Amino acid sequence: METITVEEQNKTALAREMMEKLVDRRVLTALEVCVRCGTCAESCHYYQSDPKTEHTPYYRAEQVRRVYRQFMDPVGQAFPGWFGAKPTTDEALSRLAEIAFSSCTLCHRCTFECPFGVETAEIMRVMRSVATACGYGPEMLVEIANAAIAKEENADLFRDIFLDQVKELEKEVQDKLGSSEARIPVNQKGARLLYVPLAGAHTIVPQAIIFNIARESWTLSMFDTANYAVFLGDITKAKRIAQRIIKEAEALEVQEVIITECGHGYTAMRWDAPKWFGHPLPFKVRNIIEVIDDYIRDGVLPVNPATNGEPVTYHDSCNLGRKGGLLEEPRRVLRAVVGDFREMTPNRLHSYCCGGGSGLVAVPEWKDIRMQAGKLKADQIRQTGAKTVVTSCDNCRFQIGELSQYYDLGVEVTSVSELTAKALV
Amino acid sequence: MSLLEIVAAGIAIAGGVIFVAGIVAILIALQRRPYGVEMAPIKGSPGRGVFWSFTLGMAPWAKASARLHWMAYLRGVILHLSIFAGAAYLIATPWLGVMPGPLRLSLTVLFAIGAVMGLAGFGIRLANPTMRLLSVPDDYFALALVTLFLASGAMSAYSVAYLPFFWVVAGITLAYAPFGKLKHFLYFFYARIFLGLVFGRKNVLE
């Protein structure tokens, strides 16, 4: 007879408790509505790249559904064999964690291909939360999320290094603009905008050039927008990470928080944070693309598309596009700043994930999985004949850069901000 | 009414009562689950999103999956239309005797086609290795029930003599519906509404 340890019993109890807490009306509906018709299979980039049972959305969701039947469904508990309820062991939880974290990028594409609109991504999100609570969250993601919290706790330690780095970047901006007046303001109380970058000069320098040319009243955030707790489904930590920016914005009394080109960072702050905190944020949240789009439409930024003459295509980040609502804004900007813009097919709502979303890019041991899952995106890029791929998400950027090497695409990957800065006349 | 008809009608009514009670229980359980109220300023229209969700969002041309699996999609549409017609027919059966002949003939044909589509469901489920792997007894039983419901409906529309048989099958189907996968008919509306609300407010629906 199989022995169940106390630790295993505790984990199962915790998993049950978490599931009870997290299955809301939307998730319950997603769990109950699926009829396992199988039409979702081809909607998934994992399945398209490697067509096997484990890569179908309904297989993944079904594994969680069977645990739900055991934990929460009285009919499933009464007749487990009939309804497919499954006993939850330590091994099963570990397997479910692996499915939720590495076999689904929560891209939501299958939802729009399903006749019912089953939100498998929401089921997987809950499974990620359950797995994280039970200690099965990928170590790398946990460490990155903890590091973001530690940065706020030790802000004084980082401040001087940060300010020195910003001074260096400011010189770079001044050199590029040929003006010693150009600034990267930090801690500017009363500025109109607080711009939140990512780690990396490519999310500061081009945007600083744009803000300076537009004569914007802005200030640079000390923190970065990445919120890896979102990928873990750890809302407590996600709130703490978001809170750093909220507190900074409140202290500086800004009117708007502008998130850099980061898919999950934008969605977390724009759409999720108000729900987590239970009230609207005391400032407007926009993405840098929306700001650039407005500048170009208002005639504030003089751009010359001929500067970016090579064929360019755009990859819709799932978080920024399908889940974030920014589908047309990047396209309007790109049409203004590039000479030869080409769409991938399908795009926008039906765009395929690059294969690196929802934290996959951060875990080195998942590289093979990512490269396999990204094959479809690589094929799409190749079909456009583009020399440059633009994406508004740093995770997608990293993934597509690696896809380019892996599949020998020979493309450069860049952002909307960088191409805009390049097109300025 | 003969004794057989009285017993069959009793089973159908009992099934209907269990069905209604079961649906109410599902709705209460669903309402008791938390619902995270959206607090972020909206970009699009949740109402238009819901409208999209039940119209263009369900159109076969809007889904690559429908084009790819057009036979399964068509089968599903026919099956579900005939089930809905069967439900309406069930309510009308006490007046079957006065129902116009051409209507009864049309219903016979529709239900017979629906039953064939139900049978085809077994073939599809068994032929696809993933579907076969993921199917549980509930899947097959639910499919058998609706197939039998449509077959008996076709028989009773053709000849009143089969009406007690249809009532018995309908009673069992109704009684089972809130417990097994057949309850997806109710969750379907919720799923489409949530989809429209969530993505409509983000202005991403085309």
CATH architecture assignment name of the largest domain in chain A:
3-Layer(aba) Sandwich
Order of helices and strands of chain B: HHHHHHHHH
Rg of chain B (C-alpha, Å): 20 Å
Estimated helix fraction of chain A? 40-55%
CATH architecture label name of chain B: Up-down Bundle
Total beta strand runs of chain B: 0
Q: Write down the overall mean pLDDT of chain B.
A: 96
Element order, helices and strands of chain A? HHHHHHHHHHHEHEHHEHEHEHEHHEHEH
Structural class of chain A: alpha/beta
What overall geometry of chain B do the principal axes of the alpha carbons give? Answer: globular
CATH class membership of the largest domain in chain A:
Alpha Beta
Short summary of the structure?
The complex is a heterodimer of chains A (425) and B (206). With 425 residues, chain A is an alpha/beta fold.
What does this structure look like?
The complex is a heterodimer of chains A (425) and B (206). Chain A has 425 residues and is an alpha/beta fold. Chain A folds into 3 domains: 6-137, Fumarate Reductase Iron-sulfur Protein, Chain B, domain 2; 155-295, Rossmann fold (3-Layer(aba) Sandwich), CATH 3.40.50; 302-423, Rossmann fold, CATH 3.40.50. Helix content of chain A is 54%, strand content 7%. Chain B has one domain (3-202): Fumarate Reductase Cytochrome B subunit. The N and C termini of chain B lie far apart (56 Å). At the A-B interface, helix 2, helix 4, helix 6, helix 8 and helix 15 of A face helix 3, helix 4, helix 6, helix 7 and helix 9 of B.
List the helices and strands and how they pair.
The complex is a heterodimer of chains A (425) and B (206).
Chain A: H1 6-22, H2 25-33, H3 45-49, H4 57-71, H5 74-78, H6 80-83, H7 90-102, H8 109-113, H9 120-133, H10 139-153, H11 155-177, E1 193-196, H12 205-213, E2 218-220, H13 229-232, H14 235-252, E3 256-259, H15 263-277, E4 284-287, H16 288-298, E5 311-315, H17 329-337, E6 340-342, H18 367-373, H19 375-384, E7 388-391, H20 394-406, E8 412-414, H21 416-423
Parallel strand pairs in A: 1-2, 1-3, 3-4, 5-6, 5-7, 7-8
Chain B: H1 3-32, H2 46-54, H3 64-68, H4 70-92, H5 101-127, H6 129-134, H7 137-158, H8 163-176, H9 184-200
